[in-house]
């Protein structure tokens, strides 16, 4: 028997926030409001290495990073920033650059105005802009630079560098409660208070509140969820999400995906970074790929055609379907820089590469284009399904090459036609 009402489909919720604009030339990256959740990343090169840093920024941008953050920690790094921008502009890479400042940002932004102008956004950590009487003055200098050059800022609180004076004051207040809170809730409160108080101070100094983005990063999944749920309730600023020091390999990927997915599903978060420790020899772009996969899995954005593939079992002792899946995924990702402008909508295409007769034909029918490879003991034939209908059967040693050609032909016919109609 059917229920009286249909089962509701799961969808990520939406939350209206202020909208910041991160700008370089004619490139405007909106963050918050009705903008899609943005992806950003950070270089791990020495910023003084102009060519090396520009090359990595280009790689990150081509991988899908819509903003890229640089460490600006010394006068030499500040002097390098305009030259990095120049190299990127020559390569046709207009991705906005974010300056990551700690301890001496007030001096660098004041003494190197060309750096301040070149950067599209400043990241300010209120936990290390200064101590005592110097804190307010040095924070004000950074905000004054943002106001002068009309830049967005991120007030980025981190529990590893939390304002110790603020934390001590809140702990002191807590000790006087009739029923004191535990240490962790006090720390949560300190993170949120630091972000909100700093934002209010920036507004009082003349910064447009729409140009403020907040973050309160921690390295525990449940801690991050707890902090951002409360932060989201208390303000309407755009929020940057990220599990700080997430770690290497599967730990970093799983932790980031778990924390960010819960929050994004609840409508919390306007821009994200997956902070992975690269494995030896691993490209920095991996963190961008993971961020895009999280957003695509939640159906918040589409970046590259998705490939459905079975995990394999005793029916699929051959590695053929694994090799074909890998080949198709790499092919689709490599084609996207070219396809994205030529074939609008192709990023939403669904491809299935299945390994045997059990779920193969069914999954292939549900995809835009799919192939069901023969499992162990099955006839050596691979039916191909296009738009839900079986169109042909491939045989022989060249199945991978033939299917790749079929996919490319399908993209050209379907999405090229759509582009022609719109034109």
Task: Give an account of the 3D structure.
Its cofactor is [4Fe-4S] cluster. Pfam families: GcpE (PF04551), GcpE_C (PF26540). It catalyses: (2E)-4-hydroxy-3-methylbut-2-enyl diphosphate + oxidized [flavodoxin] + H2O + 2 H(+) = 2-C-methyl-D-erythritol 2,4-cyclic diphosphate + reduced [flavodoxin]. [4Fe-4S] cluster binds at residues 310, 313, 356, 363. Keywords: 4Fe-4S, Iron, Iron-sulfur, Isoprene biosynthesis, Metal-binding, Oxidoreductase. The protein has 423 residues and is of the alpha/beta class. The chain folds into two domains: 17-298, TIM Barrel (Alpha-Beta Barrel); 306-422, Sulfite Reductase Hemoprotein, domain 1 (2-Layer Sandwich). It has 13 helices and 17 strands. It has an eight-stranded parallel barrel with strand order 3-4-5-6-7-8-9-11, surrounded by five helices. Strands 13-14-15-16-17 form a five-stranded mixed beta sheet, sandwiched between helices.
In short:
The chain has 423 residues and is α/β, with parallel strands linked by helices. The protein is 45% helix and 18% strand. The chain has two domains: 17-298, TIM Barrel (Alpha-Beta Barrel); 306-422, 2-Layer Sandwich (Sulfite Reductase Hemoprotein, domain 1), CATH 3.30.413.10.
């Amino acid at each position: 028997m059917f229920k009286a009402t249909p089962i509701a489909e799961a969808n990520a919720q939406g939350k209206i926030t202020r909208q910041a604009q991160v700008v370089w030339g004619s490139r405007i990256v909106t963050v918050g409001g009705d903008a899609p959740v943005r992806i950003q990343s950070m270089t791990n090169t020495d910023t003084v290495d102009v060519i090396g840093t520009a090359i990595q920024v280009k790689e990150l941008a081509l991988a899908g990073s819509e903003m890229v953050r640089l460490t600006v920690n010394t006068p030499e790094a500040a002097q390098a920033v305009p030259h990095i921008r120049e190299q990127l502009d020559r390569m046709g890479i207009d991705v906005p650059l974010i300056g990551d400042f700690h301890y001496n940002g007030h001096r660098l932004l004041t003494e190197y105005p060309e750096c301040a102008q070149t950067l599209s956004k400043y990241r300010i950590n209120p936990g290390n802009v200064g101590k005592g009487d110097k804190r307010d003055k040095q924070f004000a200098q950074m905000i004054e630079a943002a106001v002068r050059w009309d830049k967005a800022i991120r007030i980025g609180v981190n529990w590893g560098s939390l304002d110790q004076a603020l934390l001590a004051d809140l702990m002191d207040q807590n000790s006087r409660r009739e029923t004191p809170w535990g240490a962790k809730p006090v720390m949560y409160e300190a993170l949120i208070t630091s972000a909100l108080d700093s934002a209010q101070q920036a507004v009082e100094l003349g910064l447009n509140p729409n140009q403020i983005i907040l973050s309160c990063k921690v390295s525990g999944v449940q801690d991050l969820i707890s902090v951002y749920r409360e932060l989201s309730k208390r303000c309407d600023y755009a929020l940057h999400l990220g599990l700080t020091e997430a770690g290497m390999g599967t730990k970093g990927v799983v932790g980031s995906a778990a924390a960010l997915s819960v929050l994004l599903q609840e409508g919390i978060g306007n821009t994200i970074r997956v902070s992975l420790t690269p494995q030896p020899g691993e490209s920095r772009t991996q963190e961008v790929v993971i961020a895009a996969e999280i957003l695509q899995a939640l159906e918040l954005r589409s970046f590259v055609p998705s490939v459905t593939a079975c995990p394999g079992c005793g029916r699929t002792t051959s590695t053929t379907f694994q090799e074909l899946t890998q080949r198709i995924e790499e092919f689709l990702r490599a084609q996207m820089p070219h396809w994205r402008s030529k074939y609008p909508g192709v990023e939403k295409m669904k491809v299935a590469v299945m390994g045997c007769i059990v779920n193969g034909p069914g999954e292939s029918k549900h995809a835009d284009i799919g192939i069901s490879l023969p499992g162990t003991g099955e006839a050596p034939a691979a039916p191909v399904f296009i738009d839900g209908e079986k169109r042909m059967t491939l045989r022989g040693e060249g199945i991978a090459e033939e299917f790749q050609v079929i996919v490319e032909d399908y993209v050209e016919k379907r999405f090229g036609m759509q582009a022609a109609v719109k034109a």
